[in-house]
Here is the input.
Amino acid sequence: MSLQVLPKPTSGEKAPRPSNETRRAQAVVKTGLIDAPNSELFQIYCDLAKDLTGFEQARFSLFDGEAQCSMGGAGVDKSYKVGNRIERSKWNVCSYVLLNTEPMVVEDFYKDPDWSEHPFIKSGDAPHAYAGFPVINKDNYALGTLCLFNTEPKKLSADQENLLIRISKNIAHLLDLQVEQRSLTAQKIVQASDILSDELPGATLLDLKVLLLLESDLKVSARDANSLVENGFCITDTKSNAILSSTGRLLIEKMGITPKPMKRLKISGSDASELIDKMFSELQ
Here is the structure.
């Protein structure tokens, strides 16, 4: 029997929502991972959960207002895709993990009366063992779940359960850092924009973008940097590319986008350009 994970066939009935559902879902969206999942952030935690327990599969998911969103997995088959969305229907087992701060552990679904009516249990397509751990952030919102599945009945020892709770807390901390980094980045851009406007009245978002690109060691044409060249913040090299003048470097330092904070973003090349484009689109 292949390892299924108890998704629910389409149904109008929804799984119960946490009492703080609106704010909880908003906190999930703030991570920025629903529309742009990054499995590399969570792969090690899924691998650890699987290896430490001997369960055949471990998955981490976030839950927005409507769906369970796959973020990473270990022991998954080719049908599993990061970013997949599963309806939070009444048969979506992981949805129930969000309702409690304690883990939900089922040694054998086929002997558990609470799940006897699940269509996949009736058909024999469900795994036997399940363990779901809520991932709760610093504001006490259950943003997601770390869930384990096994085709045969299986128990967790007290030590294994404690280790999985610690892993879930580490994932929650990583999510909090993700939100804080996004917030700090936005704040820095707004602050830098205000300072640029003071130093160069009439400055545009293009001028700010050019400065960020130049500080990231990316090429910018003199045409795109025309306003900055005219005002002495940039000069033109022999290949008609813009480079920062000494006045421009002082401006960069004043704006707070010197190399040290920029390196914290760990971006380069086209990735840096794409991130800057995204930040500007959000500002507009």
Observations:
- Residues 259-269 have pLDDT under 50 and may be disordered.
- Strands lie at 57-63, 67-74, 85-87, 104-106, 129-136, 142-150, 234-236, 242-244.
